[in-house]
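Dear support,

I submitted the protein below through the web form. The confirmation email said the job was done, but the results page showed an empty box. After a refresh the structure appeared. I'm attaching both so you can tell me whether what I see now is the final result or a partial one.
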Amino acid sequence: MKKVNTLLLTMPLIILAGCNSSSSKDSSVKVQSAKPVADYTFTNAALVELMEDREQILESMAINFNGNTYDQMKFAEGLDESTTVIQLEDNMSNRLDLLLSSNDDGTCAIYKESEILDFFNCDDSVRSVSGENTLIQSTTQNSGQPIQVEFNSDAPEYIPSIGSTILTATQNGNRIDITTSFAFKAFYRDLLKVTDADERIHSTLGVTTFLQLSDIVQKYTGSDMTLRFTTHIGGSADDDINMYTGLMIHNHQITTMVTATGSVFSGGTDLFAAGKVRILERADDSVAIEANKQIGVHSWSNGQQSAKEIPYTDESHRKQATFFNTVMGDKGIDFYVFTLDSAPFDGEHWVTKADSDKYDFITTIQ
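What the results page shows now:
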């Protein structure tokens, strides 16, 4: 298990309410230029540095239970400010979901579909801190088995940023279909009693999305690939990585498609924008596309200022401008500015046909 203390210096706090959170270097500038300039350079060196930081998060926790050690984080989703569900894997590719809570009642849980559902006390009475690590030593309520959870004490703040979207590639000749799913679908159903039939469940994007897509494009380089958003994709919890994921989509000329069962919002829309061809399959073709709520945008905040309060000369804007200019061409920067004006960081705007036509956004509507 690796330390993650360096993340306090290198990784900004995640603002889940906005898709493009970052820090402003100069809040004293009052005059806003017409639009940001696409002059940022995305480099392999910067990506390597980002990945080194994120790898520390992925290796910052271990569970010892029933003779197995689960020490590789695969996915995570923040349920609220004090509760996170985390999927970990052992060296035999066995996976286990952990519900980690810092609430006063101190109840955590472990889950594996059709096999394990058990709870254990995880309050301060069973926690010990040694250096930078926290150790929980407890016993499960149902099976009475000992369980040990060890993690870097700072890690829970960053773990939700790794993402919860599964990408699955299916090959048919030279055609590769990449479909999305939610890593905690069964967990939500069995523990939280929530399914997509009750409400839209949105998965998040993060370093796990980048890693999965990287493996897919390396395996199928030269194939005709389509990324199908078949489930509901919410925002990115790690915009720095999400932009590199989008650039990978662009560089490998992957088609993006929101299917009738799916939607994209915020950082999910950023990935849709990166497609060589961008297809929308309407959930209901009898209504306007915005009524289906399938492609959504909004502004962002750094926790203190909204995006439009931050000078366009700030690196955060220049990164976004460069990204959208790269993946969309001449209308990319204007589309980015449109997202900032479309809705506040805690609001939503669903793209209309007029919006799409203005910025040449959706290539085909089916």
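Response: this is the final, complete result; the empty box was a page-load delay. Confidence is low (pLDDT under 50) at residues 2-31.
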